[in-house]
């Protein structure tokens, strides 16, 4: 496994990045490194946060200053991580990923921006939807609120910017796109992504042992459904057709 670049951002936060890799290569490397660090269960590591192009590690500086030859907690934790990476097979086996099929009602009141966005991209709504559902997306990270999956890559034909004026409240379950990615709002949060549809599959729940429906490395495929299917109780949307 390749050794990442380390940046000590603060006295308790370490940032790891890979230099010179393509987006797809970076995604693979970030996913592998994230699950490697999780598998090590290192004492003195408080949290590991994967992002689209980097991984952040929150650590206990008091613990790590006692764990190595340096009078620096950052140098000691970096030395430990590098040593562990060097002992791992070049192709580290990550946990089995899952593929979740997300049913979506596209357009209209469920996706207010779809029609205008399709026009901007010289597509009709049906063409737009067809392109969106044909792709299999990887979960690149979970952020800006609990359970929000950043999914990518978005097909280049659908590439668009965020809205110039964010909405104060986006409906729960809204499927949106912006900046080369697609995502799903897990709750009624503010947001500036373009709304194209909505699902009633819950992305985050405090009563779910795993909290988040998706994790980094999982895959997502969207399927277009009718409004009548959307209004069924949750848990009845996915069947063998999908």
Description:
The protein has 242 residues and is α+β, with helices and mostly antiparallel strands. The chain has helices at 23-40, 61-65, 73-87, 114-120, 125-134, 227-230, and strands at 5-10, 13-17, 45-50, 54-59, 99-106, 136-142, 149-152, 174-178, 181-184, 194-198, 219-224. Strands 5-10-8-9-7-6-11 form a seven-stranded mixed beta barrel. Strands 1-2-4-3 form a four-stranded antiparallel β-sheet. A hairpin with a 3-residue loop joins β3 and β4 (54-59). The radius of gyration is 20 Å and the shape is elongated. The two termini are 36 Å apart. The model is unreliable at 235-242 (pLDDT under 50).
Work out the helix count: 6
What's the assembly state of these chains? single chain
Low-pLDDT runs: 235-242
Order of helices and strands: EEHEEHHEHHEEEEEEH
Q: Sum up the overall morphology in one term.
A: elongated
Q: What's the story with the biggest beta sheet?
A: 7 strands, mixed, barrel
Radius of gyration: 20 Å
Task: State the total count of DSSP E strands.
Answer: 11
Strand content: 25-35%
Measured distance between first and last alpha carbons: 36 Å
Major sheet: arrangement of strands: 5-10-8-9-7-6-11
Mean pLDDT: 90
Helix content: 10-25%
Structural class: alpha+beta
């Amino acid at each position: 496994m390749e050794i990442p670049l380390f940046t000590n951002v603060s006295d308790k936060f370490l940032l790891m990045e890979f230099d010179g890799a393509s987006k797809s290569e970076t995604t693979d490397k970030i996913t592998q490194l994230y699950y490697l660090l999780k598998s090590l269960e290192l004492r003195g590591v408080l949290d590991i946060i994967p992002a689209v192009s980097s991984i952040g590690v929150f650590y206990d500086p008091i613990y790590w200053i006692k764990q190595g030859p340096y009078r620096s907690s950052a140098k000691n934790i970096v030395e430990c991580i590098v040593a562990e990476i060097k002992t791992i097979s070049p192709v580290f086996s990550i946990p089995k990923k899952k593929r979740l099929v997300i049913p979506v009602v596209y357009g209209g009141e469920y996706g207010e921006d779809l029609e205008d966005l399709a026009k901007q991209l010289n597509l009709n709504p049906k063409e737009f939807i067809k392109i969106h559902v044909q792709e299999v997306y990887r979960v690149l990270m979970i952020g800006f609120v609990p359970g929000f999956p950043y999914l990518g890559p978005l097909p280049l034909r659908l590439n668009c910017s965020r809205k110039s004026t964010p909405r104060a409240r986006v409906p729960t379950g809204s499927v949106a796109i912006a900046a080369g990615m697609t995502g799903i709002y897990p709750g009624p949060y503010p947001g500036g992504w373009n709304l194209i549809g909505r699902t009633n599959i819950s992305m985050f729940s405090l009563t779910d042992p795993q909290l988040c429906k998706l994790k980094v490395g999982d895959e997502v495929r969207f399927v277009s459904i009718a409004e009548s299917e959307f209004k069924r109780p949750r848990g009845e949307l996915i069947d063998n057709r999908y």
